[in-house]
Design goal:
CATH superfamily of the largest domain: ANL, N-terminal domain
Shape: globular
Number of helices: 14
Strand order of the largest sheet: 2-1-11-10-12-13-14-15-16-21-20-18-17
Number of strands: 21
Radius of gyration: 22 Å
Largest sheet: 13 strands, mixed
Length: 429
């Protein structure tokens, strides 16, 4: 009898994109200002950057990024994965001291920065060196790589590190795809560890839930250091075959110009972009005609805002997704007019996920009962970086506890009620 194969690594998103590029090299993948980057170019840039990373960092390294919202974020992320590494996306607005703290917390051995962020990066590395002299745990230095046009150029701070071997791609990739931080300062203890399996599961499920197709052109307005935005708004499109336009400014003129220029079908809304479009005056007819989906993620919009956007884009479907960084992107989606019939709805679970309502003791409740929203499935994180106690608290008994209060209604949809603190006050921890 033939024994089953064991230990085969899962396919990464980078491998899938590079494989698609062999068949559809001329297909548009990324749009930025007046530039269109085809899939073959994405794969080529990814390979070039991966070679630069592999020549300076050991295979399996953790590499942080300090980058503006450009196509370079996408190719750099894919390149780090191709080189067998883990990506730590950092908000480029963070203070250098906070960047240093996160580099130390994740154990990053590389930092890739756009040219406009090099000064901040160097100050962060200087702060990291000061921490080490001040008694912090001694560790290897951090290699700075500057993203300049299509190249990665070594910076002035070079660690003593053995170079990786060149040659063909090693399929034994690091199974951790991201170590990701939520927005804001002071969150070093909540760095979420996401695997390639998490990323692929999220990409496929969110695409199915939204009804994505190869002819879609999405407009990404959320910041790309936010892993949920990068996965749901950008990387998912590279898998389904659609294209995505990246904007760096969120004023209404820029947004409408991008929608018109690229004939955008799906608008992935940041809070800022939603406000701009809601308060906009006249919207050009060409922009109105092209938009088919208005997608809001991880934030509930007021009914007045939903209706205002629906009035401006009458042919577009309003879609709202719910999830946490700990679920890579989302676990619930509300669409097909539900958001107008039920103001507090979070929608239905994504395919392949189990969503339940738990009491404080972790027991599943019947429909209609109020408790904590919890999730199980392939999108759920491995845990928190260097925080086993917090990991056990949030991933108790096999469920990811979201911290939000809700109930399941008669239609099987999850309704948001409030935060977990309300349940604790009323029923005890």
């Amino acid at each position: 009898m033939t024994r089953p194969m064991r230990g085969l690594p899962p396919a990464t998103l980078e491998e899938i994109v590079s494989n698609r590029a062999l068949r559809e090299a001329a297909r548009t993948a990324l749009l930025w200002h007046d530039r269109a980057v085809v899939l073959g170019r994405v794969a080529s840039l990814t390979a070039q950057r991966a070679e630069s990373i592999a020549s300076l960092l050991a295979r399996g390294s953790t590499v942080a990024t300090l980058m503006s919202d450009t196509p370079g974020v996408v190719t750099t992320t894919l390149a780090i994965w191709r080189a067998g590494g883990t990506v730590v996306p950092l908000d480029p607005r963070l203070a250098p001291e906070e960047v240093a703290r996160r580099l130390a917390h994740t154990g990053a051995s590389g930092l890739i920065a756009h040219e406009e962020h090099v000064e901040r990066a160097e100050r962060a590395l200087g702060a990291l060196e000061s921490q080490r002299r001040g008694g912090a745990r001694k560790r290897a230095g951090v290699q700075l790589l500057v993203s300049r046009a299509s190249r990665l150029v070594p910076g002035r701070i070079v660690p003593r590190r053995e170079r990786a071997r060149g040659g063909e791609r090693d399929v034994r990739v690091n199974e951790v795809a991201f170590i990701a931080y939520p927005g804001g300062d002071g969150a070093a203890d909540r760095a979420v560890v996401l695997t390639h399996t998490n990323v692929m599961a999220s990409v496929l499920r969110v695409s199915i839930a939204r009804g994505d197709g190869p002819e879609d052109v999405a407009l990404a307005t959320r910041p790309l250091w936010d892993v949920s935005a990068l996965v749901a708004d950008v990387l998912s499109r590279l898998v389904t075959g659609g294209a995505v336009a990246i904007v760096t400014r969120h004023d209404v003129g820029t947004l409408l110009a991008a929608i018109e220029q690229h004939r955008t079908t799906d608008v992935c809304l940041s809070d800022e972009a939603r406000t701009e479009l809601t308060e906009a005056g006249r919207i050009p007819a060409r922009a109105v005609r092209s938009v088919r989906k208005l997608v809001s993620a991880r934030s509930r919009s007021a009914m007045t805002v939903r209706r205002a956007l629906a009035d401006r884009f009458p042919d577009a479907e309003t879609i709202e997704t719910y999830g946490k960084l700990e679920t890579t992107d989302g676990i619930l989606t509300a669409r097909h007019g539900i958001v107008f019939r039920k103001p507090d709805t979070l929608g239905l679970p994504h395919p392949g996920l189990v969503v339940s309502i738990l009491d404080p003791a972790g027991r599943a409740l019947k429909p209609g009962a109020i408790g904590e929203i919890a999730c199980r499935g392939a999108v759920v994180m491995r845990g928190y970086q260097r925080s086993p106690a917090l990991t056990r608290q949030v991933l108790g008994a096999g469920w990811l506890r979201t911290g939000d209060l809700g109930c399941i209604d008669a239609d099987g949809e999850v309704q948001l009620v409030g935060a977990r603190e309300k349940l604790v006050r009323e029923h005890g921890a």
